[in-house]
Design brief:
The structure holds 2 protein chains of 2 kinds. Chain A is mostly helical. Chain A contains 9 helices and no strands. The chains are: A mainly alpha, B alpha+beta. Chains A and B meet through helix 1, helix 2, helix 6, helix 7 and helix 9 of A and helix 1, helix 3 and helix 4 of B.
């Protein structure tokens, strides 16, 4: 368990933190995730990668935590509120720091879009693996990511950043 | 070739467009990766979109890497929770061996040493008892496992090594008037059996027990005096 924890706890923590947006909650989350893994180790059939299994459990735990809190879900309204801060993407653009603006907009995506962007780009999960983790059809994985990227482009455009797409 | 990209956001994305992020992350299979590569090589709009995706990809990694790592509290909490979990129940055999191990593990080193000494003494006593019993019942015979399995229970399953004297044998000619019942009764009385038959009217008899030459001579004499016996001589 120590080896498994040592190898995967950071990714699990970051995936959970991106979903729940609270470090304390994310830390509690990884304890719950690995405890579940310890309890259900016999059920792991090895048909998917260990990380896929871990991320699926993390996602389930994170959504449960979000349902308990009810005040963490980040919709468009919340995203706009973030853009109103002093360090919003527009200010960043003035500093000609497109990268930082992009990161800001990535943070402003909805949880549904954030998780799919993170799973594909950061956790490098395939279409099939994302479908398994999120529990949606493979075609939905592809279209959901496309619309997450479209939303990201809209946020950047609203902040005055044109990237040539769309 | 039809352009794989869509210039308008309200249009449905093409299959290749939707695969671009996975191509950037390197998670497509060989076939799809080849399709995307071919489309990128022939469609400038798609190539521009791919450049944007590469930027998103890099910044997503940068954002996640900036999140840091959990504190040691998370690990402490986890292992405290694991310690508090009820003991698992594996298979019966494992459980039994685990119980045995646990039993010995509970004993103090001193108790364990005394137990081992007592065990050794018990073994020595047991060996002594078995040895005494064997010595007491010792005879010159032995029995093989194969014979005991194949021979009838009433048959000779032992080979007597304690005596060097061979069973007595005799050549006997019965009187012409001797009946089968008389011959059978005689064989029973002398504990004898016919081992070779009627060559020249003579039967070779073997007696049931070993005997000395004098005993054999006495036996032959008695046999000679039987009414149904006309001739009896000793024979090897």
């Amino acid at each position: 368990m120590q080896v498994l924890y040592g190898r995967h706890h950071v990714r699990v923590f970051r995936f959970g933190l991106r979903l729940v947006r609270d470090e304390q909650v994310a830390e509690d989350l990884i304890s719950e995730v690995f405890l579940d893994v310890w309890r259900q180790a016999g059920k792991f059939e090895g048909r998917s990668a260990v990380t896929t299994w871990l991320l699926a459990i993390t996602r389930f735990k994170a959504l449960s935590a979000l349902r308990r809190r009810k005040d963490v879900g980040l919709d468009d309204e919340t995203a706009n509120a973030i853009e109103d801060t002093s360090d919003d993407p527009e200010v960043v653009v003035q500093k000609k720091d497109t990268g930082e603006a992009l990161r800001k907009c990535l943070t402003a995506l909805s949880p549904e879009h954030r998780e799919i962007v993170d799973l594909v780009y950061y956790h490098e999960k395939s279409v099939e693996e994302v479908a398994e983790i999120v529990g949606i059809p493979e075609n939905t994985v592809k279209t959901r990511l496309f619309y997450a990227r479209k939303k990201l482009a809209e946020l950047l455009k609203a902040a005055g950043i044109e990237r040539g797409w769309p | 070739m039809m352009a794989a990209s869509r210039k308008m956001l309200d249009q449905e994305p093409s299959e290749i467009e939707m695969l671009l992020p996975f191509h950037a992350a390197g998670t497509l299979n060989a076939r799809d990766a080849r399709r995307v590569e071919e489309a990128l090589a022939s469609d400038p709009d798609l190539a521009r979109q791919y450049a944007v995706i590469r930027e998103e990809y890099a910044e997503t990694i940068s954002l996640n890497e900036s999140l840091g790592a959990p504190s040691a509290r998370a690990m402490q909490k986890l292992f405290a929770a694991i310690d508090g979990e009820p003991e698992r129940k594996p298979s019966v055999s494992v459980n039994f061996s685990a119980r045995v191990s646990e039993f010995f593990a509970r004993l103090s080193p001193r108790t364990l040493a005394w137990s081992a000494s007592l065990g050794a003494v018990a073994l020595l006593l047991q060996a002594g008892v078995i040895g005494t019993v064997l010595m007491k019942n010792q005879t010159g015979s032995f029995q093989t496992a194969s014979l005991s399995m194949n021979e009838p229970s009433s048959g000779p399953i032992t080979r007597d090594l304690g005596s060097s004297v061979a069973p007595a044998r005799a050549l006997v000619r019965f009187a012409p008037e001797a009946r089968i019942a008389d011959i059978t009764a005689l064989l029973d009385n002398y504990q004898a059996s016919i081992i070779d038959g009627a060559k020249g009217g003579m039967f070779r008899l073997q007696f049931g027990k070993a005997m000395s030459k004098d005993e054999a001579a006495g036996l032959i004499g008695r046999l000679q005096r039987e009414k149904i016996v006309s001739l009896a001589v000793a024979t090897p």
